[in-house]
Amino acid sequence: MNSMKSYYQTTIDTQVNFVGIGLHSGEVVILKLKPTADTRGIVFKRMDAPLKHREILARQYNVSNTTLSTTLTNEFGTSVSTVEHLMAALYGCGIDNAIVEVDGPEIPILDGSAKDFVINIAQAGIRHLDKERSILWVRRKVEVNDGDNTAVLLPSLSQSFSVNLDFPDTVIGQQSYTYDTVSSDFTKQLASARTFGFLEQIAGLKAAGLVKGGLLSNAILVDKHKIINEEPLRYKTEFARHKVLDAMGDLALAGYPIIADYHSYKGGHDLNHKLVSKLMSDQRNWCLMTYSEFEVLVGPKFSAGRSSNLAAECNDQYEPRKQVVSSR
Ligand SMILES: [Zn+2]
Questions:
Q1: How much of the chain is in helix, strand and coil states, percent to nearest 5?
Q2: Measured in angstroms, how far is the CA atom of residue 269 from the centroid of ligand 1?
Q3: What pLDDT was estimated at residue 213?
Q4: In the chain, N or C: fewer CB atoms in 10 Å?
């Protein structure tokens, strides 16, 4: 499946349910993924919260915590955590709009990847809505740093994710992976890449109230030069691929597909959130247009030099629409 194939917005065609434990909370959660004609995007609903406080829109301005996973919180203080793998699954499957009902504080971790979400979303099918899909085209470089950890968006005529990891003296070592949304296959190349953790950090994380639901069935556990799990790696570059999956989920919180080349070096949820926030904070950074408008601009005679012209045309024709940068 490819997230960029439709000119029209989509939702899931039929409801699918999931039951599982939260990686950090350890709590059992029932999740219902429901179709909607509401085109606000992905809307989480905490069904155990008071009716008026339930809704949490999946947007970067609702990100409240990025420690090991991404947490969203609405203006009433209602939160849902570890949203990134489900967000990546929906994005990768090309689902723009859906209601995600949960009866607890965290999205189930399932097997630590997006695999089960993707299998079930694919079985449920996709329904097209009567509203055009829009994209955010990145007009100039946006970069965030934290020490030598870096995340950057570069202007491009398509979308790609490129990740470099460096965990010296571990089985991971230096690892890199690039995913191109046009030519790559989300289900085959990304969806099954599992999250990972380090044995030496587990005690500290548990003491901090995290990874209470962490099991060998929902994460790759690394002990320096060996992997504790009996299940072999699903990909040689599973660690880097998982970081791409995380980035896809985090960037989906922009609320639109971001047309740019994403690169990260030793990145994570915190840098991804800062990157999307920095992108959205300055309207000179991006241009919002429908996917069909974008195709007209890019044109059938695609050329390498087109990117710079596109910036000028974008400036003339498509003034940034102010409602994109919402704030509370
Ligand atoms: Zn992850």
A1: 30, 30, 40
A2: 9
A3: 85
A4: C
CATH 3.90.550.10 fits 135-300, yes or no: no
Q: Is 273 known to be catalytic?
A: no
Please, which contacts does 174-178 make with residues 24 or more away whose CB atoms are closer than 8 Å? 175/237, 175/239, 175/240, 176/237, 176/240, 177/237, 177/240, 177/241, 177/243, 177/244
Look at residue 298 in the predicted model and tell me its pLDDT: 80
What Cα–Cα distance (Å) separates residue 96 from each residue in 132, 157, 252, 281?
11, 21, 10, 22
Residue 325, pLDDT above cutoff 50: no
Q: How buried is residue 273: exposed, middle or buried, by Cβ count under 10 Å (0-12/13-18/19+)?
A: buried
Query: Domain 6-132+309-321 belongs to what topology?
Result: Ribosomal Protein S5; domain 2 (3.30.230)
Domains of the chain: which residue ranges? Answer: 6-132+309-321, 135-300
DSSP 8-state code for residue 225: T
Pairwise CA distance, residues 302 & 173, whole Å: 38
* pLDDT tens string 99-155: 999 999 999 999 999 999 999 999 999 999 999 999 999 999 999 999 999 999 999
| Ligand 1 center–CA 114 separation, angstroms | 9
Say how far apart CA 305 and CA 293 lie, in whole Å.
19
| pTM for this entry | 0.91
pLDDT band at 2 (very low <50, low <70, confident <90, very high): very low
Q: Which of 154, 133, 135 is nearest to 275 (CA)?
A: 154
Of these residues, 85, 242, 263, 269, which one is catalytic?
Answer: 269
According to the model, what pLDDT value does residue 306 have?
A: 46
Summarised one tens digit per residue, pLDDT across range 108-117 is 999 999 999 9
Calculate how far, in angstroms, residue 139's C-alpha sits from the geometric centre of ligand 1.
Answer: 28
Query: What does DSSP assign to residue 62?
Result: G
Ligand 1 center from residue 134 Cα (angstroms): 26
Buried b (16+ CB within 10 A) or exposed e, 283-310: eebbbbbbbebbeebbeeeeeeeeeeeb
237 closest CA partner among 198, 169, 189, 269: 189
